[in-house]
From TrEMBL:
It is an enzyme of class 6 (ligase). Residues 319-407 form the AMP-dependent ligase C-terminal domain. CDD domains: PaaK. It comes from Prauserella flavalba. Pfam families: AMP-binding, AMP-binding_C_2. Residues 63-270 form the AMP-dependent synthetase/ligase domain. PANTHER family: BLR5969 PROTEIN. Keywords: Ligase, Nucleotide-binding. Pathway: Aromatic compound metabolism; phenylacetate degradation. This is Phenylacetate-coenzyme A ligase.
Length: 409
């Protein structure tokens, strides 16, 4: 492989990060070998790290610090399989809080705000990450946790909540409830920080219009400390990534070769400052692209596009790759269509595959036919549309499953 998308990371900094990782971690030392990193080509020659390796390696065997210096562990939600456990040093937690406070600042949150956290606590990284960042910023924190909509609304009114953190599914549920009960004038909300699952412009518009707020898409995952890796600025054109903590590459998920700026590919991350569970060329499986130009907002931090899907979740139907983001694109453009959907892939007895997209929508005549036509143009195959009433599909406090592959592959 030749060349690497450096994202303004000096080679010396990459070399230091790699050296620290393999010096401390027996697993990474065996995996990466002892060839020094003296150039971008040397770095690009290092092997990728995968989620499977993190899952299958006991976290203390992978860790680059002795157990005595590990102060906490977290695990992934396990949405796509076995949970991934990651370790944290005291410095890791301090860096994470600083990064998340930076995210809040990019979203216009200040110490005068009151931040309600409708996200999961416990082994999942969301709750403590959102909370540590808000407290570092100096804002009032309301750790309400997920679910229990009656409690959420009660706390919003009593605490005068101005900012909340949630998944897009739960934020949509709250927005629909506020609209239905006419509560908007009783609330002080102005900003929503939304993370943990991919969401599109149609969902954004429904949340923002229902609550009268501005939303910000935040990026992260347990392996990358947690949420807080990067966030949108007020221009909402891509997510700024904290390049003082992360080196990001975008590669073709099949060839693993780097792709040009603006070309979608898989996000690959090397952590520059993470002590306990450092990552070297970690394949996140998230699909995005790198912006070639600096953001007009003036921030020096580079941008990647909002996540389009995952390379290990995309499905192929009749030879065509299907991604949920393609549905979002259509729903955002069609009047009367809701933002929630499910995609069901089936195979009949003759071996022919079919794709049915179940969409919430109004009763506008011709809506299903228009959606079917738009989906076919966007995806490239014939799509069956199953219209269901608004509010029919599940809204979850956690991640929402949208693609169901019923084929016996």
């Amino acid at each position: 492989m030749t060349g690497v998308d450096v994202l303004d990371t000096p080679v010396a900094e990459l070399a230091d990060a790699v050296d620290r990782a393999r010096t401390g971690s027996a697993f990474l030392r065996a995996k990466l070998g002892d060839v020094p990193v003296r150039s971008a080509e040397d770095f690009a020659g290092l092997p990728f790290t995968t989620k499977h390796e993190l899952r299958e390696t006991p976290f203390l065997d992978y860790a680059a610090l002795p157990a005595e210096r590990i102060v906490r562990i977290h695990s992934s939600s396990g949405t796509t399989g076995r949970r991934t456990i990651c370790a944290y040093s005291a410095k890791d937690l301090d860096d994470w809080a600083e990064m998340f406070a930076r995210c809040y600042s990019f979203a216009g949150v200040t110490e005068a705000d009151r931040v309600q956290l409708m996200v999961g606590y416990g082994m999942w990284t969301a709750g403590v990450g959102f909370q540590a960042g808000a407290e570092r910023l100096g804002a009032m924190t309301v750790p309400s946790g997920p679910g229990n909509t009656d409690l959420q609304l009660e706390l919003m009114r009593e605490a005068g909540t101005t900012v909340f953190g949630a998944t897009s599914s739960f934020a949509l549920l709250i927005a629909e409830l506020v609209e239905r009960e006419g509560l908007r004038d009783e609330l002080s909300l102005r900003v929503g920080v939304i993370g943990s699952e991919r969401w599109g412009d149609a969902t954004r518009r429904r949340i923002e219009s229902g609550l009268g707020i501005e939303t910000f898409d935040i990026y992260g995952m347990t392996e990358l400390w947690g949420p807080g890796t990067g966030i949108e600025c007020s221009l909402h054109d891509g997510m700024h990534v904290w390049s003082d903590h992360y080196h990001v590459e975008i590669v073709d998920p099949e060839t693993l070769e780097p792709v040009p700026h603006g070309t979608p590919g898989e996000v690959v991350v090397t952590t520059l400052t993470k002590e306990a569970t450092p990552l070297v060329r970690y394949r996140t499986r998230d699909l995005s692209f790198r912006y070639a130009e600096p953001c007009p907002c003036g921030s020096p931090y580079p941008r990647i596009g909002r996540i389009e899907g995952r390379s290990d979740d995309q499905v192929k139907v009749r030879g065509v790759i299907f991604l949920p983001a393609q549905v979002d694109t259509v729903l955002a453009e069609v009047e009367g269509a809701g933002s929630e959907f499910q995609a069901h892939v089936d195979r009949d007895e003759s071996g022919r595959d079919s794709l049915t997209i179940r969409v919430e929508g109004g009763d506008r005549q011709g809506l299903a036919a228009e959606l079917a036509e738009r989906f076919q143009a966007q995806i490239g195959i014939r799509v069956d549309v199953d219209l269901v009433p608004m509010g029919t599909l599940p809204r979850n406090a956690g991640k929402t499953k949208r693609v169901f592959d019923h084929r016996d592959l």
